[in-house]
Amino acid sequence: TSVLEEQMDVRLRQFSGTDEDEEDEHVEFTISDNVYTVEDAIEACGFGWFQIKLSVVAGLVWVVDAMEIMVLSILAPEARCDYGLEPYQESLITTVVFGGMFLGAGLWGKFLDKFGRKRGLFIICVFVSVTSFISAFAPNYISLLVFRCAVGFSVAGSAQAATYYAEFLPAKNRAFCIVLMEMFWALGTIGEVLLAMLILGRLDLNWHWLLGFTAVPVVIDLLAFVFVPESPFYYITAGKNGKAKKVLERVARDNGTKLPSGQLVSTGEKRWIELLRKDIQESETQPNEPLTEEHMSDSNGELPNEDTAKLMPKEIDYTGGTRGRFFDLFSSPDRIHLTSLLWVLWFGAAFGYYGVVLLTTEMLNILKEQQDMSNTSSNVLQCVGSAPAPTHGNCTHLETDDYIQLLWTTAAEIPGILLTMLIIEKLGRKITVAAEFFLAVLFFFLMYICPIHKYVLLALIFGARGVLTGAFQAIYVYTPEAYPTAIRAIGLGTCSSVARLGAMITPFVAEALLRTSLRGGEGTYAAVSFVCGVGALLLPLETKGRGLQESLGT
């Protein structure tokens, strides 16, 4: 009984605005007062000028992430030629980046759950700017590996931009907007190819200059964070209702709308209040009296009935101790089912997407090497036999035509995004993810047919990259919707960590295995995509039209 009394006392202090946040004003809360949640407020504010500004800030984070990832497909072949690397050493340049991302993604997710979305993303951008710029001065192969691993650790947190952005979006706009944000990723990848074409192609500078200029856009993003607030979902789970309301008032003001009337409470508190009112009405309490500890007792002086007590949001810890806990991802059979399947999907999406990015330049290089060996200009890629591993003295660099072809395959992300935007609200999240993975299986299977003309191969790569981009983005939509606020960032962060495992492994398939067996590499990608398509269909819930949940019990 004493435990329940203490919990009710905490709730009463929260309702009256006397929590530890000094900026909150004292508010008399009565049983008859209207209450609303952050989700209710976001729906009332709608989509407007505030979300447009936030789209740019969150999108710039993804531009930075995309450029740091896309540069790997250009950096690895260039460093191989400069340092005379073996294929496995070339693969390590990419693998260490994703290794750093694997280590960082979960940690950044926990950091954002405990200390805030905006603060976390700002610190992430600071880390990215410093590590990325330092890596441009790597004097040798080992230092390059160390510095790029640090870049990976830093940029791992950029996935949390999706969490931050989603928490300001009305349910009806959420999927469309998060998928649309992928356009910033596409702009980042295309921008990196154009930057490489200018620096390595036109200006004939080396990859050190390319890394240096790649670090510039993150500085712009750091300045942009001045114009956006902290997430109200974070504030409400931290017990800072006053700050959450101020943020929501800013959203409403920017959008020219109004907040609902009444007091702002968490979703769990709203459910508890509704049941408490029912208990009080049954005990004939006057509806306009202040909500006090006396009114929380029944006619015999006991606490509310057992059913009401069970629904109290007691999992909310306003000191921050229970937010961002890893084991809450597995706190029930349904959540175990959800987390396990999401890990499979994130692993497969990263394995396939980054594999296509890397194998594009690798296949172009293999074709050029086959042309040099046969002393012909044939554009037919031979899939039998082992492709030669270039030596330091006999190494091919990408030329202007190669960059243009790389640009075209990179541009495949735009129709992939448009396809996902078109179908995700009609078919739902699960079917969209499954359909795009199965389309990827088809494209990889057609690549399996050998020999294959260069332009047919590029068309198939175009298709595979487009649908894998769409599948990856649909998973980004689904994941924040599936987890409650208390574990949303760590849920997305751990999924991102698992994705980096797939990204760590894929260079050995797209760069090393591909030189031994083209069909073996393509078959591997087809098999993983098929497993992911099946896994998407087995997800435990469809989140289309579902509001963001706040507490662990919802």
Entry keywords:
554 residues; mainly alpha; two-stranded parallel ribbon; 21 helices; disordered N terminus
What topology does this entry show?
Layout: H1 2-15, E1 35-36, H2 38-45, H3 49-83, H4 87-115, H5 117-135, H6 141-155, H7 160-166, H8 171-202, H9 207-214, H10 217-224, H11 232-237, H12 241-255, E2 263-264, H13 267-282, H14 306-310, H15 333-374, E3 380-381, H16 400-410, H17 413-427, H18 429-447, E4 452-453, H19 454-482, H20 485-516, H21 518-537
Parallel strand pairs: 1-2
Antiparallel strand pairs: 3-4
Q: Could you give a quick summary of the protein structure above?
A:
The protein is built from 21 helices and four strands. By secondary structure, it is mostly helical. Helix 8 packs antiparallel against helix 19.
Average pLDDT rating:
80
Distance between the termini: 24 Å
CA-based shape = globular
Number of strands: 4
> For the CA atoms, what is the radius of gyration?
26 Å
- Largest beta-sheet details: 2 strands, parallel
Indicate the proportion of strand residues.
under 5%
Outline the structure in words:
This protein is mostly helical and 554 residues long. 69% of the residues lie in helices and 1% in strands. The protein contains 21 helices and 4 strands. The strands form 2 sheets. It has a two-stranded parallel sheet. Strands 3-4 form a two-stranded antiparallel sheet. Helix 3 (49-83) runs antiparallel to helix 6, helix 3 (49-83) runs antiparallel to helix 10 and helix 4 runs antiparallel to helix 20 (485-516). It is globular, with a radius of gyration of 26 Å.
